[in-house]
Amino acid sequence: MTATMPERITPNSTDEGFRKELLAVLPHLRAFARGLSGRSDFADDLVQEAAIKAWTARERYQAGTNMRAWTFAILRNHYLSELRRSKRQTDLDEGAVERMLVMEADQEGPLHLGDMESALQKLAPERREAVLLVGASGFSYEEAAEIAGCPIGTMKSRVARARADLARMLDGDQPPQPVEVRARKAG
Q1: Which CATH code is given to the segment(s) 115-187?
Q2: 129 with 79: CB under 8 angstroms?
Q3: Would you say domain 13-86 falls under CATH 1.10.8.80?
Q4: How many Å is the Cα radius of gyration of the chain?
Q5: Which range among 25-39, 78-92, 102-116 shows the weakest confidence by mean pLDDT?
Q6: 119: Cα separation from own chain's centroid
Q7: Does 21 score more than 60 pLDDT?
């Protein structure tokens, strides 16, 4: 029995333009995925899956629109799907294990960057996503709200609260308590 080879896809000029735009956005997608997940290996998987999904759906992409916003939405949706799928599954965080086994550098720069990364991971997921979209990825509030599927006012509120939480944590104050915990203590 002989295996049949898949037909070779002959790229057209539209595909080539799309490919170039997609390749240009990959570093931004990786930074966003790393910020969302906090794990470089998972971030790479998210970016790869988002790129595959974008390529598969390239006919639906309208040339001249914002490729970054479109691919960020794809990545975000895939990330949320993965979270739902793996809610009951626990993985060993290899990055945490490495940090326990490796001594930090003496320079202050990496220490501050590590503090920021740690503080980002302590934020509520929707606040972390908001500050990554607006602060780190440079999207406008309107674009970030569209990507996250929420009203612009909600996005502005999430960013403001995330920035305040980060400032508190980086100043050495206690990390913010989830809303549910504050509500229970008040009642």
Answers
A1: 1.10.10.10
A2: no
A3: no
A4: 20
A5: 102-116
A6: 15
A7: yes
